[in-house]
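Standup, Tuesday
Yesterday: got the pipeline producing structure tokens again.
Today: sanity-check two examples.
Blockers: none.

Example 1:
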Amino acid sequence: MGIDLEYFQDVQKVYTDLTGLHIIIADQKGNLLTQQKSTIFELIESQNKIENVCKEIIQNMPKFFRPLLYDILPGVKIIFTPIVLDAEVEYYIFAGCFAEYPTKQSVLTYLQKNSRKSKLLKNFDRFIREYTPEEILEKKHHLERMAEILSKQLLAEKLKRKIEVKNNEVNEIFQLLAEDYLSISDLLKRFFTSNPIIDFIGYAGRISPVQFEIKECLPLKRHLSGKTFFIGEGLLGQVAALKNEKVYSNLELDPRSSFFQKHGIYPKSIFCFPVIQKNDIIGLFFGGTCKVDSLENEVMSQARKTAAFIKIIENKLYWQKQALFNELRATVKNEIFHFMTSLQSPKSIQMFLLDMSINLTLTPFVSIAFLDRHKSSINMVSRGLSEEKVALYTNDLTNRFLNNKDSSPATTDPIPQLTNWGEKVIEIPIIYLDHLYGYLCIGLNNEIDEEDLLLYKILSKAGGLALYLEDNVHNIKSDQKIDSIIDLLEFIDPQSFIKATRAKKILNEFELYLLNPEINKKAITYAFYLIGYDEKIIKKIHHQATIDVFREYQLILNHSLSLSEASINVQILVLIWTYIQEEPNIPFLSKNTEINRDLINKFILYLSRSELKISEGLNVEQSLKTDNRFKALTKRESEILKLVLKGKNNQEIADQLYISGHTVKNHMTRIFQKLNVKDRSQVIAKIYQLSL
């Protein structure tokens, strides 16, 4: 153990002066750590030999924890004091030399006759002092206090080193986590090797809503790895159910530990930490000992940190998977739209589904089972299955879905199955408008993730739509084809679909305020849904007005065209799309100087009369009180203006204020004059600008 020798030397000097004794300090093996000039010890033995004497004393003395007297020569005594740390002797203090009153003269006489240590005999009166039993006891107390001071220093140094080690370990773990060099298995090994009291540790991952499987276990891999338990079952299952960390002690007779006992492990104490992700438990970090009935706080503290690091790894894996999933979904989205806009034949549809499915996840096989037009037979194409297994599987599907009419699927939900040879598979119906075209069959190594299943369901829906369009290629118009493809967007990208559908609703309502023959509502609507796609795909829909709007919008995004130069269709597209992005606050309405002012005023008027209630976001009272133009309004005019901002028309205002419609009209005329505006949309716009 490394120590602060300078501190030890300083303390030694203080207590040398305090006790009047010569002091040196040695380690457990008798190696001298400190120095003492002109010590009595050197008169007794040389420096090298005194070290040997210390070693001999330490080896021959029984274990002790209090200061002892020891005769280093007959009648010449030292005080031998242990320095204790964590109930173990780490160092020794040697303090001497002296004779016990009144033996000094008799000791000298004996040594003169029997000792050859001439230096000692010559300086005996000078260095060997005589102390009473009371004085010796006092010196023992001083040396015991010295040992306590050094013990506290050792403890502080030990804690400091431990903190440094832990900080270094934590920093190292964070570094490894940042560089993706650390796995859950690595964390378990680190914890296990640094805690000898622990006999086993493991990590269980959730494999279903109610079941967990032990993925990692050290060192008893052969006992626990791969074993499963249910939420609420036994010690681990209880933690999974309650989602709270737990430490179990005195488990020898506890029936809840039967899960471990039946696998040859007999724990006395167990800890278990849930790993929570998005308010749901995804795993359990656990460990235990067969040696003691309870675990120390230090072990639990380290276990808690390990659980936190496991959560970091799981979260990182989750977000990596989410990023991959989003990337895959974007790829699938573009590939599907590219494919749907260039349909060829049923066979090309089969091969598209097959190629996309096999590349989505690590799956043992993918099969596409298509029903013929009369639903009398099944044709299968497959990747990953032998011809023999394809024949077996085709026969199985035929028996289940064709020969037995009662077993025909009444749902579009995926169907989990086992093949004839015992392999897990999930069968996803390929359906469009209640017409069953076949099944997308995905072989499984493990339970399928929700994200992966969603991608396969998207593909199956795309396949159903593609087959429907191919069957009706001569009867479907271009607009119907685009509408069908847009319907698919609800499954491919639901967030974009919801946003585009909301924009479409606003456009349908806002159109009533425009009355402009140049507006192409269908082109703007299609642009809302296709706004995130590549221009090459948009060109394939063969709807020129939409292509023109989309291309113009892209020019604005690339700063190749100013918004003020854009067509009315694109300005409406930008206005509504920006409103949806910016709400509930819509500062762009007053700040945007590029969009046609009349268009903005009409949009504000529409908002004021719609359920969106623009007035909720305006500080109307403040505007009416502080702006001189509004101060000129009478109390009645102010009341009418507030109702205008709530979207009320003249008759509704009249009914609420118990006045005639003609009176309301006169008040509105005076309001326009005082505010220097032409209509109510300009009034709303002016108040909005003042309220920002």
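Example 2:
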Amino acid sequence: MLLPAVAVAAQPERISLGTATEWAIDDGAAYTSLNELLENEDRLDWKASEDAGLAFGFTTQPYWYRFSVGPVDSTMSHRFLHISEPLLNELDIYVLHGDRLQARFALGNDHPFHARPVEHHQFVVPVSLSEEETTRFYVRVRTSGSMHFEPVLWQAQAFAEHARQEAIISGLYYGIMLAMFFYNLFLYFVVRDRSYLYYIGFVAAFTLFIGSLYGDTYQYLWPSAVAWNEVSVTFTVAVTGVMVLLFSSTFLRLRQLWPAMYRFFMALLVISLLLSGLSFVIDYSLSIRLNSLQGMLIMVTMLTVGFWMWARGHSHARYFALAWFAVVVGTSALALNRWGVLPGNALFANGARIGAVLEVLLLSFALGDRINQERAARFQAQQEVLASSRRVQEAQKALLAAKETANRELERRVNERTRELETALQKLEVMNRQLENTSNTDQLTGLHNRHFFVEKFHKEYQRAFRHREPISVLLMDIDHFKYFNDTHGHLAGDECLKEVAKAISGLISRPGDIVARFGGEEFIMVLAGTGMEGARVVAERVRASVAGLVLELGGHSVQVTTSVGVATLVPDSVQASESLIQAADESLYAAKAQGRNRVCCYPLSVN
């Protein structure tokens, strides 16, 4: 059968043959040789490829591929045929000049690595293109894993440069992973923290898994161990899961902070241990599917747990969450690249390696951050103990001295020390109150800041929920403040904020009411036990009070106005507090949209 041949008019360094390829499934492995195929070629259901790479997912059925290259110039006759998927069990390549068999190559991971004509972690063979006839290629592929086929013809020098760039990327990846392994191994011997032991186990297993996935371990570590190479991917990914679960549960302190999730981690750990043992027993095609499902479940779990704990205020989880986000993005980029969704460049083709490096680095930062926090806590505790010890020693000395002089002197000294301690405690209490007030106050306007507001607002909201009382929020924004700043300068803008804050703060007097600077030119007010009508009245007073301000700037009088959004709610759930602020925010934007210097209440009404 005649195939449409790829016409090569110039001397391109790289020729992608994927779109010129036809493929057919060898159902039942009926045609294992080229002669059997050619005799029954018309019986197969050949389909044309539309993409540079053909991906069929997990399958154990053999596939036949065929493509042709038209007659070429003598300067282009010697090329390398490159198949980029390293995890193929059988790869039989037949090269024909016209109807004559010119070369045959029997490759695949079922053969020792040194049987390959070109030592490369992927499959590369030298081919000779005919100068007079069409060169036809027939390729039979069988794999127990994922079927991915992307044929490329390379000019020799261009392929050498491509291989050199790949070697640099691989060298950087393995260099970083080895450096992190030995660095954290050293830290383990120094600090004796079990998290480091699990972490270096994870780094080792993950590095071997990525090496097996890319074919590097078969080339450099076990080139003759065909049987072991078959199970290395599934075994290393299962062991990686074991080490990840041990490290994560220890690092995140799940036993203390989240017992239910800790038990779920232990269940996943048992499954990963079983899968690591089953890698040597069950068929690879089943093992890789089970490990893929387990791996996806672990990644999703780690990502979810990391961000959940970070959101709950556990600072040591932030690097952990970012690390797993990097892995998910990297592996997704590699998968989409294999499926042809993302372009086949070095960035996406090495997505798993990049994600692995980022994960290892971020997890190392996470360990260091946690160690620093624990060290700071221990240091603080030690300082407190030392201070207490010094105080005890001083008290003992004073007591001994007092005993040596007289009981009366002892009583006087004790009373004196007691007064000194009370004075110091009073000063400390005053300083603590001042510090608390400073941390809760906006330094420019003198109002409470957003941190204080959030804390007090949630308390007032919960009180309103318990007593079934209404609670209202007023969100205020100075109109055209950016234009005011740009026109009159930031110093004038600061003065404007102070005057507006003074005007607003003078309108509340009840203990439960709160007014705070919410951010930028925004202010917020909470009116406890106040319904919509009362809130509307206060909001109008705020608007009128601000509208009455006249600022003298550079000999000119400038009027300031504000827009106010009002929302009122009788809480029926303690979780709905943010929705009240959101409603006030929507009302504020409505006031802006209706011309500014006005009050809008939620639900919105359009004037």
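Quick observation on example 2: The chain has a mean pLDDT of 86. The longest strand covers residues 90-97.
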